[in-house]
Amino acid sequence: MIFRRDDPPFSFASVTVWYNGIQGEFSMTMIGIDLGTTNSLGSVYEKGIVKLIPNAYGSYMTPSVVAVDENDQVLVGLPAKKYQLSHPERAVSLFKRKMGSLERVKLGKRTFLPEELSSLVIRSILDDAERMLGTAVDEAVISVPAYFYDEQRFATKKAGALAGVKVERIINEPSSAALAAYYENQKEQMSLVFDFGGGTLDVTVIDCIGSVVSILAIAGDNNLGGSDFDRLIARSFMDEHHIKRLDETEQEALLLAAEQCKIRLSSKKETDLTFRLDDELLSSHYTLTRLASESEGILTKIKNVISRVIRDAEVNTSDIEQIIMVGGSSKMPLIQSYIRFLFKKTPFVSEHCDELVAEGVGLFCGIKERKEGVKQYILSDICPFSLSQATYNEAVPARDYSTVIIPRNSILPCSIEKKFYTIRDNQDKMDITVLQGEAVYADQNRLLDKYVINIPKNKKGAESVSVRYTYDINGILLVDCTITSTGETISRVISDRMDEEEVKEQIARLEKLKIHPRDVEENKELKERLIALTENSTGSRQEWFMDLLSFYESTLESQNVYRIEKLKKRIREILSQEETAELFDTDDFLSSFEEEVKEEENEEPEEWEVFSKWIS
Q1: In angstroms, rounded to a whole number, what is the distance separating the alpha carbons of residues 366 and 386?
Q2: What number of CA atoms fall less than 13 Å from residue 414's CA on the CB side?
Q3: What is the CA radius of gyration of the chain?
Q4: Distance between CA atoms of 58 and 69, rounded to whole angstroms?
Q5: Residue 482 CA: distances (Å) to CA of 306, 417, 609
Q6: Which domains does the chain have, with CATH numbers?
Q7: In 295-345, where does DSSP find H-type helix?
Q8: Whole-model pTM?
Q9: What is the mean pLDDT of residues 367-396?
Q10: Which of 6, 287, 451, 569 could form a disulfide with 270, with the two C-beta atoms 3.0–4.6 Å apart?
Q11: Residue 452 CB coordination number (10 Å)
């Protein structure tokens, strides 16, 4: 799309662009946007179906490319991608990988932050949507990689605001794909969604029952995608022809040739890559076998992400009933073969797998607007990163540990508390250091907030503070610090992006989540039933119920929502058949339950040669 100067202006701090405004009174609507690394798509839920939004060039995909030409005109999408071939210094792509950073890109006389570049792509899709719908768009739901940090998610919301649209909700890309896949096939089963786009990889384990789509675990890599194969092929070509260096224009031309070579290998077993350099036409022959042998590093990274999500979901590979391939890069036969090799089953690959995320975002818009046909659907989501508190390291006092309060892959919304004690006599202050990430040491995680609370002086370990984290589906974190001896609670919303009124509203809303599982009425009722059965039983039957009650109480104390719900389901099944309870063996029951939710044991990694021989 081209922004023209004879249209109404749309401005932000560092640049003013012009877009096709629409005159008149319109009803408002909501659209979904798959803001991709290499391509972006828009969608809308209308009259019971999801419609993808075509751009001005008749394609559903808008290249995530921005350029500024010699006349200082901003180009977005296909025109920018074409312009990039001849003027790479005036165009930029893959800026999604920089979201949340302060890294600026200079194009001509202008400079842009990553969210400003993304806002131009969003604005382009909004204009396409308004052209198609004949109505103004006032709200958008945007998908992001599951492994985007808070600042990257905020930058995405900011990009929407810069484009002139409200973005109240961000949705994880694999969650969106899972929703679309389930809506399409309606199969109640455990699935793994493998979302491999141009610049990111997300892998998700989902469990679908009725109208509920539950996300069990997410793992990913924000810097791994199909474009890495483009660079790999380009480097391989340069090595083969002993090319030491290329200028920027030549690099862009070779990367494009490498991308086309990769695409041809999606439908052929072999192809040639030709490239003209200094009036000499160079050529290399590529086969699927050669690509596989040169891709060991990329495929190993993919396997590591899959292994992590399987462990976090606490399932076995044999529990996965279906693998759903999503994203344009999933069309590569090499990737499909590798997934088939790892799981020993054929993955489901839709002809339009690169549109599945966009379809899911459109569906979610329908759910959010409570539209007929989808309003009954519930999409549970999880926290992709652990949230923790810095704690004293007695062995190395200068380097604090990171103590997890909300573990990664906790079902959202959630509220969990832990108690921390003073470490020296007469200590009158405690540092509250809120962190995000998986590292053992505090300084290796992302700092979300740090402040100090005052506590009464006392002997070492005599004073304690209960720190509760309450985290919701919109990424708002409330931290409550309750001083045990005085009962005083200091509350703080972790966000420097809200005004005072917004903070008050969020605290009031999040208060409803701060209930320990042991205090939830439904859980208390089930516990009372177990107590009654224990008291009314004798002998081995009473011992059985006593063991079950003890196990239920310890599971409630873990505050692990997934384990609690799974155990409650099993207990209800048993209580519905009380007359057969004496036939159960307690140890067998507990071990079988643990087996269902335990971490998969680490297996010896497959030798790379096995796959290389297999695919060839």
Answers
A1: 30
A2: 23
A3: 27
A4: 23
A5: 39, 10, 56
A6: 385-514 (2.60.34.10), 519-584 (no CATH)
A7: 296-313, 333-343
A8: 0.67
A9: 86
A10: 287
A11: 10
